[in-house]
Amino acid sequence: MRIDVVGGGLAGCEAAYQLLERGVEVTMYEMRGVSPTPCHKTDHLAELVCSNSLKSEAEDTASGLLKAELDSLDCLLLRCARECRVPAGGALAVDRELFSQKVAKTLESFPNFTLVRKEITSLDFDNPVVIASGPLTSDALADAIAKKLGAQYLGFYDAVAPIVDADSIDYDKAFFASRYGKGDPTDYLNCPLNREEYDAFVEELVNARTAELHDFDKKEVFEACMPVEVMAKRGKDTLRYGPMRPVGLRDKDGNRPYAVVQLRKENEAATMYNLVGFQTNLAFPEQRRVFGMIPALANAEFLRYGVMHRNTFINAPELLTAGFLLKNDRKTAFAGQMTGVEGYVESIASGLIAALNLYAETCGQEEIIFPATTICGQLQRHVSAKTEDYQPMNANFGLLPPTGEKIRDKKMRKVAYYTRGCEDMKRFISDLNIRKEA
Length: 438
What we know:
Helix content is 31%, strand content 17%.
């Protein structure tokens, strides 16, 4: 049996692995290396375009529960992430290069895996196929998908944060600390601002020149990737309650800063740092000027500027089953952010779920729908439940049904969701026996 995978991002790579593990011959098509995208910097498989963080692993977080569920399903990409993690407090952050290398090496170790560098412009596949071309799908492929689906696409903006050279930071005007003391104190480098510095920074930020955006019909911004300059325009103190919040932090003198910009390590060697929560669409010269008003970054060298690009997702509830299969052609599956799941780990989960269900479909077995008490199960329900205004969704406990327990402590309530989800997922997997066969 052969199944094709279009796209070598997070969802496509996880889908390929799940199929390869089940003895399926997989041909993956990736256009990078032949045709670039506006935001990718390499042609590597599983390249992380935005942050290098896969969010928290804590038991009181929805992202932690989703990771635990995927671990029980033998998720390759999470395993690779942990093998090349960099310190980030309670978050799972990775060295981008090492992460991509580990994923590629694993896939290429399978004799039944073939990688083809080619831009796909037609969906006339003879074999079952997983479409995981991502939110940066090429225009030609997007047109082919739209033609096949007969449905209108939806678009929204996404933004990427800048990365600076570690050697160019003024460490005398910064301090190492993790919020509330979680994790190693060196996980985050904090750049404080006093009130006058903050007010001047916000004033310049809201009036700075932005880059021109092309080819957007719907000028919408997804909240999770809100550009910092757009956020600042919502109110003078918005940033102080958002990415520049000082709570949980103390400077070298034991005082809480008025505002702070956190920098997180981009690689294991700590030679690069990204500005946490500072996705932006400012013009490149403006980024140098305005972000240079942050005292510790006055002479910072930008290794990557922030950019804004188009993200596209399909109206999944009209088109897909809960197994991420196309309703009118169940030999075609979709996965990744173009389905309306938002986030790295959510995209990985969608690739895994799509692969399991496409494999089950080709074997003549029933669709696999995970319990409603799991994040995986609720992401399935999100992409298949009819709604008038379909929007991307992150993992969150709000998706889950109540536990039925009266737990007053907020953290313990979340831990209860985590415990229930883990137990229900393990029970479901045991009953269905889907670890290596659908």
